[in-house]
């Protein structure tokens, strides 16, 4: 199977994540997408994140009714911070029957050359890039790269930071979250 890996801290997961993941799995050669909950992104501060188990629970709730989307906690057992190249190596050993591809926003592609062992990732994995509104153009070294596919997908500019801030400020943000994710956040009193 060709599995797309959609990495994120998902703090919280929102409808933008679901729209992109569902669009990609329905309109590409991907058989399934694993939403990989990252405990510690090397570029984010841990103290700004909800506990791993709560973010994982919200992703499970969000993808429950999407048969081609699955949640993965694979990075919870790997050394932190989580580097994608290490996770891919581990997944390749654990699931040799699958082919793993990365899913990333165009904004992440702009910084891809700064990722640990990005050349190893490119050598062994396809990358599906969804469009973002960006002030900078994609790095020319990745333009027309045979392993990188820019997909036609809805441009979703929803920010988890804006959602967290909106909740803290008492704003109505429910349309940005799956209903059951909102219920979970509200019941747990998160981000207030």
**Which word captures the global form?**
globular
Determine the strand fraction and express it as a percent band.
15-25%
List low-confidence stretches.
none
**What CATH architecture label applies?**
3-Layer(aba) Sandwich
User: Termini distance?
Assistant: 41 Å
Number-wise, the strands total: 6
- How many separate domains? 1
Q: Indicate the CATH topology.
A: Rossmann fold
What is the H-and-E element order? EHEHEHEHHEEHH
Rg over alpha carbons: 16 Å
Descriptive notes:
This protein has 192 residues and is of the alpha/beta class. A 6-stranded parallel beta sheet has the order 3-2-1-4-5-6, with helices on both faces. Helix 2 packs antiparallel against helix 7. The longest helix has 12 residues. Strand 2, helix 2 and strand 3 form a beta-alpha-beta unit. It is globular, with a radius of gyration of 16 Å. It starts with a strand and ends with a helix. It has one domain: Rossmann fold (3-Layer(aba) Sandwich), CATH 3.40.50.620.
